Amino acid sequence: MKKIHLLVLKAFIKPFIVTFFIVMFLLLMLFLFKYIDDLIGKGFEWYVILKLLFYAAATNVAMALPLAILLSSIMTFGNLGENYELVAIKSAGISLQKAMAPLFILITCLGISAFFFSDYMLPVANLKMGSLLYDVREQKAAFLIKEGVFNNSIPGYSIRVEKKEKDGQILKDIVIYDQSKGQGNTNILMAKEGEMYKTDDGNYLILRLKDGVRYEEAQGKTGYNPRQQLTRLRFKETEQKFDLSSFKFKREDENLFKGNYQMLNIKQLTANRDSVTKINDSISNNVFKEIRPYHKIYYATQNYKSSKPFKGLNFKSQGVFAGVGDSLKKQTVVSTAIDNVRMLKESLQNTITTKKDNTTIIRRYIIEYNRKFTLAVSCLVLFFIGAPLGAIIRKGGLGLPVVVSVIFFLIYHIISTVGEKSVKVGNLDPILGMWSAIFILTPVGLFLTYKATIDSALFDVDLYKNLFKKFFKKKVKA
Predict the structure, then answer these.
(1) Long-range contacts of residues 147-152, Cβ cutoff 8 Å, at least 24 apart
(2) Is 365 helix (H, G, I), strand (E, B) or coil?
(3) How far apart are CA 294 and CA 338, in angstroms?
(4) Is 222 exposed, middle or buried (0-12, 13-18, 19+ CB in 10 A)?
(5) Residue 328 pLDDT > 80, yes or no?
(6) CA gap 422, 240 in Å, rounded
(7) Percent helix, strand, coil in the chain (nearest 5)?
(8) pTM of the entire structure?
(9) pLDDT of residue 221
(10) How far apart are CA 300 and CA 117, in angstroms?
(11) Other Cβ atoms closer than 10 A to 436
């Protein structure tokens, strides 16, 4: 038994490691394709991109691990079946369940590790990646002057260059609009040639301009024409200094992102959910206090027919306008009542909106709370689908196992996504929605395990061909 268990473990570990890193690589490529426009042309240091990819890889573990377990389990038992090793194991009197026992223990350990990872490491990875990705997307593109195009990257300036030399530093026919004073294009600088370079610390851009002229319009003394005075200054050589501090990569405080649902562990999710629930309960308890100022009791009892006049007013015979004889006063009473009802309605609508928003927040906390458990359980469920599938189809390698595993993983992912969205909008109970994929696929895994145990030809193509032939023969005879 020990040799068989070691054989199965060795056959599983290598495909698992390979498939896990392949899936991680594919997910990282999808991440790069999604945010490629936010990364290119901004002058990031190599370590910034590397850190972002590292945090993105950590957040992708929740999707890569179940898929890798499913694919590697199909490949493992498919290879064993294709090489008749599984037949030899069964002929030795060892059932499929006993052969799967060491992998069951290993996957259980992986599931427990995945749970602790999702509770302790994943919130930190989401926080690091979320804050860094925000800073990357907010970063300005690197300062770049293109020929024949106005560049407005530097605040308060608009720069146009007709031609650039091959070294990228020598510029020809330069036009600079100085808008830093907030008075529009009243200050224009033109030069035939210039040289561009940065200071040693990279904080400033220096343009050394040659053979140019500066035009500046100023407000006249009378105020009748705000651009009455025109100053023209010719120069042989001058320097223009531009501040590049806005192009430097800046990091925001990570504490600003800590309130996000995906960046909390189980303890924090429980505490936040309880606090929002208490707020919702207090809102419900205070509804009557909001209504009470607009509600006046005019009857001695709740029964209208048996009520007695209140303070000498006979409401039973005179109606709601008892004691109000003047028609103008009646209009005032009605107008006041309508205003009170309108104010009360607005107050109740605000209360209902607040309760709905808080309920949505509570659902999000419950979703993230259950997600940490479903990740661990999904590893076991997909293993009990993949292992018997591999034993049934008896095909190893990366051909048919990849197709089958992707199909089953897509089914799992689609059910999970639909259930999660239904929980978010309130159409499903949070427990039922988040665990729907587990509830649906668990019977499938048990069914496949049973079929693999009895050596069922569930995926035997020849069997279905023979069934179709028999069916058509009977039809022809009839």
Answers:
(1) none
(2) helix
(3) 11
(4) exposed
(5) no
(6) 59
(7) 65, 15, 25
(8) 0.69
(9) 57
(10) 66
(11) 19
